[in-house]
Amino acid sequence: MKKKTVVLGATPNKTRYAYTAVNSLSRAGHEAVPIGIKTGDIEGIEIMNGTPEVDGVDTVTLYLGAERQKPYYDYIFSLHPKRIIFNPGTENPELEAIAAQKGIETINGCTLVMLAIGNY
Question: How far apart, in whole angstroms, are the C-alpha atoms of residue 28 and residue 67?
Fold first, then answer.
């Protein structure tokens, strides 16, 4: 099943995991929606800035540390994701607790590993 995924913390920097995640999601047939503070693109997919409206979101995968996630709490929930993936270094018990109250699945894992082993 293909899952529209918002990659929060996307960057045009090819050395960052968020960049690789957008590429890996696209190669696996998922619609990747990169959102970040920097402008540019990832292999032709434009990085959106701010809090753009995105419909049909299955997953939000985080590439922002816990403190940098706070301004995005309302935005993340406005997307109505089925799940939120906290990649290594983005763990956030506060956001996880709020998500759980809203019935949103949370996963402490690695998007890249999940894709590689087929359990995304």
Answer: 30
Residue 59's CATH number:
3.40.50.720
Q: Where in the sequence is the domain holding 66, given as residue range(s)?
A: 5-117
Residue 17 has pLDDT above 90, yes or no: yes
Domain count, the chain: 1
Rounded to whole angstroms, how far apart are CA atoms 88 and 105? 17
pLDDT tens digits, one per residue of 24-80: 999 999 999 999 999 999 999 999 999 999 999 999 999 999 999 999 999 999 999
pLDDT of amino acid 86: 98
CA–CA gap between residue 27 and residue 49 (Å, rounded): 23
Q: Name residue 12's amino acid.
A: P
Q: CA angle, 27 as apex, 24 and 33 as ends, to 5°? A: 65
Cα dist from 21 to 16, 25, 103, whole Å: 9, 6, 25
Task: State both tokens at 29.
Answer: 């047939």
